[in-house]
Amino acid sequence: MNLPKPLYSVLALVVLVSSGCATPRVDAPPPQLQACPAEVPAGARCYTGDDGRGAFYRIAIPANWDKQVLVMHAHGGPADTGPAKAERSEQDLKRWAVTVKAGYAWAGSSYRRGGYGVTMAAEDTERLRQIFVQHFGAARRTLLHGQSYGGGVASKAAEIYATVAGQRGPYDGVLLSNSILGGGQLAYTFRLDLRVVYQYVCKNHPKPDEPPYPLWQGLPMDANLTRADLLTRIDDCTGLRKPAAQRSAQQSANLATIVNVLKLPEQSLVGHMNWATWLFRDLTQLRLDKRNPFDNSTAVYSGSANDTALNAGVLRYRADPQAVAVLAKDSAPDGRVNVPTLMIHGANDPTAFVELESAYREVRERAGTAHLLVQTFTDESAHSYLAEAQYPALFTALLDWVTRGEKPTPQKVLALCRGYEAAYGKGCRIQPDYRSPPLASRVTPR
Question: Which of 438, 422, 416 is nearest to 342 (CA)?
């Protein structure tokens, strides 16, 4: 039996590292100078362009780029599906202008399309690095920063490009922030749990008078359900948009069942339901040839008022082995990263569970590269952006590790952060003694 072709083919590793060998020319229009967003420090030069393969990008270079360090950014999501949008990379530059303020050049790709595709996004990020080198010269050091879903992209890129033409690859170090790690199956199976538990409780996604479909499909391709429609259904069932005192007894009970079984904070329910609807549709029907990579056939759910009834009543699905294999090839890390990797994660992150850090740590331990991994944690409840002073501290600590071999500790990162508070604002929330719990403590094991 032939396996289906991979989700996205990995580019041939013909990229030569910037130190010692020239990067081959990329067939793409040259970057165009454009006014920088207001968030970027005055005097910086900003550029925009497309990479010739469907992705848009933004580049920002500080007025005094004496550090000669380039930070390649892999953005989060994927919130949108469909064609790439130029405004995506502009939004990322605005959010991560702290990188330019700290004296580093920044470059970020929109990726060539929305929706799921970790290897695709890793390729697009590397292609942009080549464009930067072609037009602005090689940086002294190049760091790879992945945020959220982009953390999975960056961890994969660090593996794909670990060695190029027999030499160490183009990235000197990796920074991962609030990352979704472990690959699509490991990181997203809990969203199938969410769909089946939600449907058991609410019975309105789909509604009884709508055509049924396997919930792992997310949504039929011809369905016209909007995010506003889904929010109304969630609110009808749980009273989510109402103050707790204004919810009916049934709504309160419904919401309690969902958040207790899934161990989700209330404020993240809508976001996860959106991903489990439209992203699942993109992933399973457009990327995996209508095959299911998620399995809850043996999951035993707990936390409801009647777990026996819940486990007897939820819909059950078995994963298709071919879908599992293709998704793993595209997104699952193998841990073979040969450069320093520094991570930060909010312990109360409502979107990317901090427990995913434990799963990634185990991957690195199995690969024998855990000595190149340092994890730091904060007590924050944010996902998209943590306290700003922490980012220049992380970059400094990572560069000290890269250039001088000084492996950082969480205590060092905290001390560096406090030194940056005068320029970047108060808010160093790093907890040096915290260690992430195992993933099985958060996601129903199977």
Answer: 416
Locate tokens 């848009």: which residue?
A: 56
CATH number for the domain spanning 422: value is: 3.40.50.1820
Query: Token digits for 251?
Result: 């709504």
Domain presence at residue 436: yes
N- to C-terminal Cα separation, the chain: 27
In tens, the pLDDT along 111-155 reads 999 999 999 999 999 999 999 999 999 999 999 999 999 999 999
Identify whether residues 151 and 260 lie together within a single domain: no
pTM over 0.85: yes
Identify whether 285 is part of a domain: yes
The residues, any chain, with a CB within 8 Å of residue 405's CB and separated by 6 or more, are: none
Please report, for residues 202, 237, 251, 256, the alpha-carbon distance to residue 248 in angstroms, rounded to integers and kept in the order given. 14, 10, 5, 12
CB atoms near residue 246 (< 10 Å): 10
Q: Which two tokens stand for residue 434?
A: 């915290």
Tokens of 135: 């037009």
412: which residues sit within 8 A by CB, 6+ positions away?
397
CA distance linking residue 274 with residue 261, whole number of Å: 18
Q: Are residues 292 and 351 in the same domain?
A: no
Q: Do 354 and 221 have their domain in common?
A: no
DSSP letter for 4, please.
P
427 and 355 inside one domain: yes
Residue 387, burial from CB neighbour count under 10 angstroms (0-12, 13-18, 19+)? buried
What are the tokens at 228?
A: 């506003």
Is residue 229 located within the same domain as residue 312? Answer: yes
**Number of domains the chain contains:** 2
pLDDT digits (tens, 9 = 90+) for 7-37: 433 333 333 333 334 566 899 999 999 999 9
Residue 148 identity:
S
In degrees and rounded to multiples of 5, residue 105 shows phi and psi of -70, 150
Structural domain for 419, as ranges? 32-179+333-441
